[in-house]
Amino acid sequence: MATIQAVLRNKPNSRLLYPIAVRMTKDRKTSYIYIGQYIEKRQWDERNGLVRKSHPDAIFINQLILSKLTEANKRLLTAESESKYQSVKSIKTSIIRNERFDFFSAVEIQIERIKERGQFHQADVVKQRMNRFKAFAKADKLHFNEITVDLLKRFEAYLKNDIKLAHRTVVNYMISIRTIYNIAIGEKWAEHNFYPFGRGGYTIKILESQKIGLSIDEVQLLESVEDISPAQRHALNVWLVSFYFAGIRVGDLLKLKWSDFIDNRLRYRMGKNQKLVSLKIPQKVKPILNSYKRKSQSNFVFQELSMVNPDDPKQLRTRIKTVTRNFNRRLSLIADKVGIEKKLSMHIARHTFGNISGNKIPIQMLQKLYRHSSVTTTIMYQSNFMQDDVDDALDSVVNF
Question: Does the keyword DNA-binding apply (predicted)?
Answer without folding.
Answer: yes
